[in-house]
Amino acid sequence: MRLTQTKAELRAAAAIRPRAVVMTMGALHEGHAALLAEARERVGPDGSVVLTIFVNPLQFGPAEDFDRYPRTLASDLAIAKNEGVDLVFNPSRDELYPNEPSVTVHPGPLADELEGVFRPGHFSGVLTVVSKLLHLTAPDLALYGEKDYQQLTLIREMVGDLDMDVDIVPVPTVREPDGLAMSSRNRYLSETERDEALVLYRALSAGAKAGMNGPDAVMTAAHAELEAVPSVKIDYLALRAPDLGPVIGPGEARMLIAARVGLTRLIDNISITLR
To answer: Binding-site residues for ATP, please?
Structure first.
């Protein structure tokens, strides 16, 4: 495994085109390990897996946790090596943004909904860095977790609209045994807050079970779970089509939630079949 920290080093190491890339902000956990394992399986023993680690300042708002976001490079590299990563790209801020960018990616109207209501400009920052990293790593495959479902949807739209030559591969959310979606921000939770955070998955699961009775029943069941834990402050609970447009008739749908547990903001989502 090779660690690179400049664009020149990355280009030299990637003279043979890497096959798969997994983009992260570090603080790796089993969810990231699952992405890396899936990447390795898809490219096979002769392919290349590239991991990027970069805490992207463009996607953090002024009141968000950029400065305290966990940086754990040593343990990240150990996980990467264990999962068979060939190349790690860990640039500095100045390396990736030598100047304040004047050209960024406009993510379209979906970016102003759901997460975009509470994090204005977030998805412009996400798509800008994803676009840069796709150009720099030139992969055949890029793998993203379904936990960040709106992000995944917008990346798919960008790749399609801009005719980027890469396949976007979604990977299911990895959960703790009690259902909590794995997240680098879970480490911020106190023991009490972690117990409270389980209500997010309980609400999503209740909604999924109610899918046979239609959208109204889904929302009612989910809200009933959330009302039992008033200390968890809900930013949104939404039922959308798989492309995050409005639900139209029976079929597959996606329920998404964002909530604040203490000072920590968590997101999650689940696939639902509506009858």
So the answer is: 25-32, 145-148, 174, 182-185
Residue with tokens 């209501």: 117
Of 3.40.50.2000, 1.10.150.120, 3.30.1300.10, 3.40.50.720, which CATH number belongs to 186-274?
A: 3.30.1300.10
HSE value, Cβ hemisphere, 13 Å, CA-based, for 127:
26
Predicted structure pTM score = 0.95
Q: Is 135 annotated in the active site?
A: no
pLDDT, residue 89, reads 97
CA distance 168 to 20: 10
- Please say whether the dihedral angle defined by the alpha carbons of residues 107, 238, 184 and 83, taken in this order, is positive or negative: negative
The predicted model gives 166-191 an average pLDDT of: 97
Binding-site positions? 25-32, 59, 145-148, 151, 174, 182-185
